[in-house]
Design goal:
The structure is a homodimer.
Chain A: H1 5-19, H2 24-27, H3 32-51, H4 69-78, H5 80-86, E1 91-97, H6 104-112, E2 117-120, E3 136-139, E4 163-164, H7 165-170, H8 178-190, H9 194-197, H10 201-219, H11 222-238, E5 241-249, H12 258-277, E6 286-294, H13 299-315, E7 320-326, H14 335-352, E8 359-362, H15 371-381, E9 386-389, H16 397-406, E10 409-412, H17 414-419, H18 431-436, E11 441-443, H19 448-451, H20 457-465, H21 472-484, H22 490-514
Parallel strand pairs in A: 1-5, 5-6, 6-7, 8-9, 9-10, 10-11
Antiparallel strand pairs in A: 2-3, 2-4
């Protein structure tokens, strides 16, 4: 019964195919053009693994494809692969925190446009404390303007004094870099830099949290907020994103009210009208909001929150896409703590004939059997539509099966996971486990303003660069799935998918055409 | 159909149990004593996560359970959990490279006992090159002794001159630390230190490879080799290990011949006799050799290797446990390159009625669809009895299923994987994925002399510390499985398991007794 080598090779091919049979890019037969484009991209990836990633890069001792994002970002942007992916139609952003979606340079630029926006510090800024003292931003009512001309860096500055942002910038001590020094300081406080990215998990979460505190002071100013939202839509569409479901906190201290939702709606209409004028209507299907509150509130507060969410859903049915509770899972309360209230929310929805799906963060952790890991059980039992992160899902065979069978999509945020130290590089990321097990996945940037992974191109790049299995066709499936698993109504979803397919076809054709 | 909270909790418990139903520690009902010991250990783990891992430790900025081994080693050794585990009966070491199993201090001490052992360097040693110049060790025939008294650190030293190790040590320049400086230098060349452990993957493999080159010069000296083997057996048994299958290279350049096998056999008999005299017969069932060659040889050379392996199996049927090809998978030849020859080997075994199972290294990689990752397909198709490392196995749903159904055990080497940069800490290790999917697992130290994880206690500690699911009973299952998946004959295996069960019972009783 000896096996000859040809028979062995037949068995081998069959086994590999069987092993990959649950992958979304394995079930569809690609068109000839898709197959050619995929091959071109694979060859380019292999070539650049040597020509770009194998070359010397100043300040990057051991570059490799899929490496730490903040350190490798400049190298990524030099690749042809990145340029190709930047043109790819990417479907939906399903997981992004609205407060973290517009780049910090632009946010600061916006702040300078409004005399109402002020800044103060808790200490006089000096060369030695500049990296530790954070700016506090705040819009002041006109009656409160005192128009001080004192610099934050002047010895006469009284800590706590609100100075107009523009003044603070212009008077910033030349010894600390002058206006550009101010920009560097302010932007540094709203973003994570490469050296911080390499620090321990605990410290990176502290820095991450503080970036929100700083930028919130600027963006929670209604006139600026509108331009902020517009910029988010504009840059997303530029990156090939055609639909968005953004999370935003409606917790009382966040000061988010109906006015903010109305603004979101209005900006969306304006943006769509602008696109339509340019003949680009199909490039943007729309944007919705996932109502979120925080995992430190009480059960009573949660009852209030979902009642508020229901009221908003009744008023803005086309805007409220779902409900979530957010915040670092390793340190805040687990979902099980809130389960009673969430069951009541579910019952109330049924009574009212409403559909506000849960779209829970769960399993954003390295824990094995910790409360954060166990959140996956509750998310699924409570009937979550999708799972935010689901990083630890791969440890749970039954839950993996459930996600596959019930079509629960995982919103995977590769770069976020790496920067927040769940994985050291894309090579260690469990994404291939999900894909190979047929669990639906969409890629998301999470907090691009802080991480510098604006749009979806960077996350798509990291995933493509770190695999020899996933190719362009595989990325296409992820994009397609992001739209399929959105909360869009049937007709809208069909329109979104049809528009995407049309653009995808053009995209793969353009790869083949430019390679002839 | 509203669900009340009690019903929800029932569903939740059922789901968690279902999710964990494939775990080995889930199928057996523990005895009352086991359950109590397990609880004690869980409470101790939780307490020490705060009292030890939450405390300040000099030179360790952010300690945490399951952290980088080389940096956290001293903290681990301070814990009560470590002390308890050191007494646990651990079953078999199924994955260790014989050249890397005795600690470097002891190897150097042995070297000093033999006038034949010499050392030389390629450059005069100075304070500035001490960390870069490696010692070369070599036993010389007596006729070649020149007995030079020149120090390696003396300006008159001619690079390449062989100096007796003892002389070299005694004459080591006091400015470089004198004899202790020599020890530090020599031991440093045979081990990996914490700062090297944190360097990039590429560099750590270079250092790792060089440690073998250095120590081989000492241990390939037959009289010393015997004492080396004895020490390996002795320390393993002290650590609670009762059976060993060690890999050793029989490639020509390694100079391993029948004499070395005979020595291995003789030392084993001596060691068993010594234990028997002490009334400790059941603490050591024995040791076997997995014949290995290297993944850079040609197909013709592989044909020669397995013919050699067959000849040895015929002469030492009780010693030859299996066959493997070793070396870094990411850079050397894949198994598929050797498949034709390996199929011939398999056929020949059938003709001769022999059983030399393949026990292949496979998937020791972060690659997704790379040749190293694909080695898993070939290992399984070629009928491997176990898999060495199998780090990337979790990506392959069909192969996971096959391993579970065909009972193919994975020899997981947690600390090795972390030091060689497959994972950044135990928290990122895919081990829970294997266990939760019912894939049989045994823990192994791989190369403890280089990594400092002598025995099995350190690897067991890292696994226990990094999980809230795995407890003492879970570790017991891993130990039991290591014996079950050994190549021992039926009767021997039954004896080994019975002896282990007896010790395990005493062990859990002692935990409960000492905690009253």
């Amino acid at each position: 019964m000896a096996l000859n080598f040809a028979e062995y090779m037949e068995q081998r091919t069959a086994l590999i195919n069987h092993d990959r049979s649950l992958r979304p890019d394995h079930s569809r037969t690609p068109t000839e053009v898709e197959a050619r484009a995929d091959k071109i991209v694979r060859e380019l990836r292999a070539a650049e693994a040597v020509s770009v990633w194998g070359a010397e890069h100043e300040g990057v001792p051991h570059p490799f494809p899929g490496m730490e994002f903040l350190t490798g970002r400049n190298i990524i942007m030099k690749t042809e692969l990145f340029k190709i992916l930047s043109k790819m139609p990417k479907g939906a952003i399903l997981h992004a925190h609205l407060d973290a979606t517009v780049n910090a340079e632009y946010v600061l630029k916006l702040a300078l446009d409004y005399p109402a926006l002020h800044v103060c510090t808790t200490e006089l800024l000096t060369a030695s404390n500049l990296n530790n003292i954070l700016p506090q931003f705040k819009p002041l009512a006109q009656a409160m303007f005192t128009n001080p001309t004192v610099a934050l860096t002047d010895t006469s500055y009284a800590p706590g004094t609100w100075v107009p942002v523009k003044t603070a910038r212009e008077t910033f001590d030349p010894a600390l870099g002058g206006p550009e020094g101010f920009d560097k300081w302010a932007i540094g406080a709203m973003t994570i830099n490469p050296s911080e990215g390499e620090s321990a998990a605990r410290r990176i979460w502290e820095k991450f949290t503080s970036t929100f505190t700083v930028s919130t002071g600027i963006i929670r100013f209604l006139p600026l907020w509108k331009r902020y939202i517009y910029e988010f839509f504009r840059t997303s569409v530029e990156d090939g994103v055609s639909y968005i479901e953004a999370r935003i906190n409606f917790h009382l201290i966040m000061l988010i009210t109906k006015e903010w939702l109305k603004a979101f709606d209005q900006v969306q209409q304006d943006f769509k009208a602008d696109l339509k004028r340019q003949g680009r209507r199909d490039e943007f299907i729309g944007a919705r909001i996932i109502y979120t509150t925080l995992r430190f509130i009480t059960l009573d507060e949660l009852d209030l929150a979902w009642k508020d969410c229901i009221a908003l859903k009744l008023e803005f049915p086309h805007l409220i896409a779902g409900f979530d509770l957010v915040g670092p899972e390793n340190t805040l309360k687990p979902l099980i703590y809130y389960a009673e209230s969430l069951l009541r929310f579910r019952d109330r929805q049924k009574e009212m004939g409403l559909d506000i799906p849960f779209i829970f963060h769960a399993g954003e952790t390295l824990g094995d059997g910790t409360e954060a890991d166990d959140n996956l059980y509750d998310a699924i039992l409570l009937g979550t539509l999708r799972i935010g992160h689901g990083f630890s899902l791969v440890k749970h065979p039954k839950l993996m099966e459930t996600c596959r069978e019930k079509n629960i999509l995982i919103e995977v945020c590769p770069i976020s996971n790496e920067i927040l130290r769940l994985t050291s590089s894309m090579l260690m990321h469990p994404l291939p486990v999900l894909i190979n097990n047929g669990v639906p996945v969409a890629l998301s940037p999470d907090d691009p303003a802080m991480f510098g992974n604006m749009g979806l191109t960077f996350d798509f790049y990291q995933v493509l660069a770190a695999s020899e299995v996933t190719g362009l066709i595989g990325l296409g499936e992820l994009a397609r799935d992001s739209l399929k698993h959105s909360t869009l109504e049937v007709a809208e979803k069909e329109r979104a998918l049809a528009a995407w397919e049309k653009r995808w076809k053009k995209f793969v054709e353009s790869i083949v055409a430019s390679n002839v």
